[in-house]
Each structure stands twice: as C-alpha cells, then as structure tokens.
Design a protein that fits this description.
The structure holds two protein chains of two kinds.
Chain A (H helix, E strand, L loop, with lengths): L19 E5 H16 L4 E4 L7 H9 L7 E3 L2 H9 L4 E4 L6 H11 L3 E6 L2 H13 L4 E8 L10 H13 L3 E9 L8 H11 L1 H12 L6 E4 L5 H4 L7 E4 L7 H4 L9 E12 L2 E4 L3 H4 L7 E4 L4 E5 L4 E4 L13 E5 L3 H5 L4 E6 L2 E7 L8
Chain B lengths: L18 E5 H15 L5 E5 L6 H10 L2 E6 L3 H9 L4 E4 L6 H10 L4 E6 L2 H14 L3 E6 L12 H12 L4 E7 L10 H24 L6 E4 L16 E2 L21 E10 L4 E4 L3 H4 L8 E4 L4 E5 L4 E4 L10 E5 L4 H4 L4 E6 L2 E7 L8
Parallel strand pairs in B: 1-16, 2-3, 2-9, 3-4, 4-5, 5-6, 6-7, 7-8, 8-9
Antiparallel strand pairs in B: 1-10, 10-11, 10-15, 11-14, 12-15, 13-14, 16-17
Classes of the chains: A alpha/beta, B alpha/beta.
Chain lengths: 369, 365
Amino acid sequence: MERPIIKPLGTPVEELDSPSLIIDVDILDHNINTVHSFFKKQKATLRPNVEAHRTPAIALKQIEAGGTSEGIAVSTIGQAEVFFSSGFKNILILQPIIGQNKIKRLCSISKVADITVLVDNLSNVQEISKIANDNNSTINLSVGIDCGKGVFGITNSKEAVNIIEKIQQSPSVTFQGIIGLQPDIIKSNNDESLKTVTKQLKPLLDTLQILDSKNIEIQSVAAGNTSSYDIVSQIEEITEVIAGKYAIMDLKLTNDHNELNSAAQVLTTITGIPEQGVIITDGGQKAIGADLGEPTITKPLNLSMGGLSAEHGNVQDNDLKNQNLKIGDKIWVSPWDSGECCNLHDYIHAIKDEKLIAIWEVSARGVYR
Amino acid sequence: MDNYRPSPGTLINEIETPCLFIDMDAMESNFNVINNTYKNTVCKMRQHTKNTKSPRLAMMQINAGGTLNGVCTAKLSEAEVMVEGGITDVLIPNQIVTEDKIRRLCALQLHGDVKVCVYNEENIRLISKIASELDVTVGILIEVDTSMGRAGVRSSEESVNLAKLITSSPGLKFMGVMSHQHLEEFSTHEKRISDGKEFIEICMESKRAIEAAGIPVEMVSSGETFTIDSAIEVEGVTEVEGGTYALMATRYSYMDDFKIANKVLGTITSIKNNNIAIGDIGTKSFSWPGQQLPEVETPQNIEVVAMHPENCELDISKANVQIGDNFVLLPWYQDMLVNRWDQYVGIRNNRVEQVIDIPGRGCTQ
C-alpha cells in the first residue's frame, strides 16, 4: 500500500510528497463537462467506463454531470463489488465472468444491484443460467460483438443471434442488449471518421438487423470509446456510448482530441544531479508506468526523459537550459497511459489552483478478479 | 486494493484468477543457493527487498542463511514496512533529499538502524542538520557510480571529500561505500564474472582512497543478482545486494542456479477461433516492461501473441484448450509485476500453503 506523507488541505502542490499522482480538478471537471454536456444533447447516453481510473470520487462526478445512462462500466466482478460498496447500483461488466466462484459473486450482487455482464459464448451462458437458477437469482446478459478490437466478442452476427435466442430460452438469465467492441480510431474529419466507425460497427448493426427481423426485443445497443465518442453517438441505432479515458485523458489520446486535456501528472523530485545535464528523480516505472508508452516531462520545459528504470527517472537536460535546477526541485511527468498510472497508486492528490483540495482513494486499484 | 485470501489446502485450479503466486519449493531452493554461496564467506547477502516487498520473504531468506540480519529497500516507505515487519537493519541504496522524508528517516532510527546513501554535499548537510535536531544518528554510505551513469560519485576524489564531510558532520556516522552495476546481457559466463568484478573494482578504488585518507570503511555494499557469484571474489566487499534472485525472471535465465518462483495463474475466458484464445491476464496485472511477450509455463504448446490492458491473446493452434482452463505466465522482469499485487499466494504440491502479504506494494515514496 502506498504510504505518502499526507499534507494538510491547502498545501501548495510542490510541497506534496513525491512521487505522487496529482489530478488537476479544473482540467478533470472541464473534460467531464465537455463530454457530458455533449451527451445531454444526444439521443444516446454515456456510460462511463471507470476501469480507466478505478476511483469512486471521479465516477461520482461523472454521474452527477448528467447525460449518462445513470450507470457505469467496469472490467471485473471485483471492480463491480468495489463500486457497489461506494453506492453505484447500475453496473455493466465488460468482460465475461468465468468459473463457479465468480458467477456466484455475480448472483449475489445481482440481487441488490442492477448488474449486466458481457457474454460471448454459449457454454458461459449455460453455466451462468444454471448457477443463477440454483441461487434464485436473475442475471442480465449483454452479448459482446467483436467490432475489430480482437479481444472479446463474437465476430459472426448469425452466431450472435443464435446465442441471444439461447439466452431467451434459458432460465434465470435475461437478454439485455448487444455491445460492439471497437478499437480506437485515428480521427480525421467528421465524414471520414463516421465512415470508419460505421465500418467497424457493421457486425453490431448486422446483428441488430437480424434481431429486428425476428422481432426480438432489445434494451440497449452499446459501443464506443473515448477516441470515437462523438462519432459513435451519431449512429442512430446506438443507445449507449461506453467511454472512460475522457475524464483524465493522457498523452495517448490528447493528440486527437483538442477539446480534452491531460488532468493527471506525476509529481517527482530531483534526488541528484551527478553530472552536468543528468538529472535523477524519484519517479520510475513503479510510480509512473511505461508499459504501453514512455511518459513525457511537462515542467520545467526543455527537459527530456532519457529513461525510466524501476525506481528512478533519468532526466536529460541536453541543451543545458535548466542549470538552475537543484536537488529537491520538482519535475512534472505526464503518463502515456493514465489507466496504468492510476492502477499503480492507492491515492490521488486532487489539486485546484496549485493547492491540495482532496485526497481520493483509488479503491479498485489492483482489483483484477 | 485486492484482499484475496484462499484457504490453505485449496487446489491451485480452484484459485480465483488472475493470481500472482509463489512456487514455494522454487523460492526455497533460491534461498538455499544463497546459503550455500555465502555460508562460509566473510561477505554476506543483504536481500534487496524492492523485488519482493515483503518482510516475511526477507525473514525466510535470513532464516535460510547466508545473509546479514538486514535488507535493502529502494525507498524510505519500503524501509518503514521492513522495520514494522521486524527487520531493523535496513540499507537504502538510494537518496533521501526532501526535509519531510529526512524527518521520517530520522524517526525510523528510534526503532532500527536505517542507513542511507549520498553523493551530494548539500544532501549530507541537510541530513546532518535534521538528525542533530532530532538527536539521532544516521548511518551514511557514499554511492559510487561504476557503470550505470545514474546516481553516485564519478571519482574517488569526490568520495574522499564526501567521506571527510560526513565524518565531521554531527548526527551522521560514516559507514562505507555502495554501488550498483549495469550489466547488459552477457555473451559468456566468464564475461559476466569479469565485467562484474571490473565494475565493482571502481567502488573498491573509492574505499581504498577513503582509507588512505585515514577514514575507516566498515561497509562495502555492492552487487546484484548477476554478480552474486562474482562479488564475493572481490576482496573487501562486505555484502551483496541481490534482489531478483529470490523470485527470478526469464530475462535472467543465465543465472541458472535460480528457479522462477513468481508466476501468474490465469484463466481462458474466451475462445475466438481455433487459433486464438483470450486470457484474463493483461498488462495492468502483469506489467509489461520492455514489451516482452511473457513465456507460458503451462499448458505446453500455447504462446502469448499479444498483450492488452486487461487481457492476453494466446495462440492455441497446437493445443486443445477450453474456456475455464488455467494457464501460467512467467515474468520477463519481476519487480514491476510484484508491485501490481497486494498478496502472494504460496503454492506447494499444487495446493495453497499460505497467503503472504506484500505491504511494500506501491511504496514508491
């Protein structure tokens, strides 16, 4: 468990313990308001995927901002349990739940909350149906359709419909809807992006068409991610857009979305300047994360990240423009993937106007099962 | 935070996944290698617990032999965890520079002997000032850069100057010198041994220079997993800071006395087609430094072909695999993996033997 020195609220940010995950609440609120205001004007509603930050305090802001389905999405049954105990009662689990123990947990939480779980194969449907029936529980199922992401989901629409019909015939499970699982898009102009997304979602829309022709009732047709939230919502059939990264954002996504900014940074401290141009900090891979891409130094300017070992940042001042820096000074680092970074920390230091205003627990950090 | 505690006796295939587990036999075998290597030498192991983050595992190595009664930690908060776990002799081979952290370092001296490394005069003065104020004595070593280009003094002259400053500063006790070595992958066993010794010699030069200036040097703390066998051949090294060896990683398979003891158990959660299955281990739970695809230990004939944040893609074209089947992945680099988990599940003979907490997880401060 992370053990930072906890400073009083109001402490100037550069006096906080380091390395610490810092979120600028003004940027966070701006991002949330931008996307949620957009959805208030759409037919489709937004379902925040809180797996991106694992933090109930941020999820609450997202729900309060409006434009949502009044529910959230998570990745695991354990995350659903964590968010349920923070008061969230409408939860979509975006991965299949496999195995007797986990399905029993699903039955238990389904009795007190509105839970839907993704399925993508028949044997899983049958197992859930049997265990739910034994436990006097009813489980809502949504069928995952692979729209190019290549992880979960059925690729063939006829097969998807076949499973949906089996769900309808099985006891103790109800068919809720379909979920299109898409990869991120590289944005271009609206028409081109819409064309790309429509092509991605073809297996989803084909499935919907067959369901219509068979008069099979459906509650929700979900798809989306942050990269394409404003495009997917233009497709008439989509009732719900699932997106998570938009709240905190990160380097990976900001290039394509000027309307949103990176709210999370890691505050690190210079622990040594062993030779001219070489600056060593206390922020390495364990504090920032570099699994999917290298982080970038945002402050001071004109520094570059030479390398990130497990415990240290090796910062380069190649042009020697920062010779005034000394031991104890702060270096601000923006993670490439904020999802990984949040999962390394137990606490988020929330700041406004450069001062600490709250400490939020990353309650679902490390909850993988 | 995860708090999964399966009952001892639970069969491995009944464990909820993904699950970081320790092959207890393999870990004990690694601890015994250390005992055999160091039991008759003056130089001893000081386990680097940044790799295990568990006072319990540190104590198991101390009980197995070949070690000092102490450990290393990378960070101050990790040192607190070790002291709270009953291990009071701690060396932090790293720098503690901010005033509030130095205060915590001084507070730890009330319960233990927590030493820290320095290579900067200003840092020495600040530790001295706060230690004097709080009326404690902090043990200090000088970090010497031998090959990493990271922390540490770049010359013996610097070491001598700093040693003089430390010995004349109140609240500080000069203990010795410390170094870590940067060793790329090795062409041969001989090259690994000779490079290791050559680099550690740079640290020894500082030791001799400080002694020549009339200052006694009690500790020479050096080495890492890939110099476990070469550091003891350098006369004067008093302790070796091995960390990875305890749980091991595929990257260091050339250290073939040691077995991989930390593994992750996963479950096949979806089968896309005859060739590809999806597992529940992803980069968030496994870590992915260097983006090296992890090795599959079991079942045979399946391979990881891609990693995603929550999942991995497995090539199952040569195996008969069903949804719900388990598989085991081996880490390429292990301490980033351990830092993603709150417990180890200890497995022996395919059953849960014990659950061991990882209280140092996330202790980056």
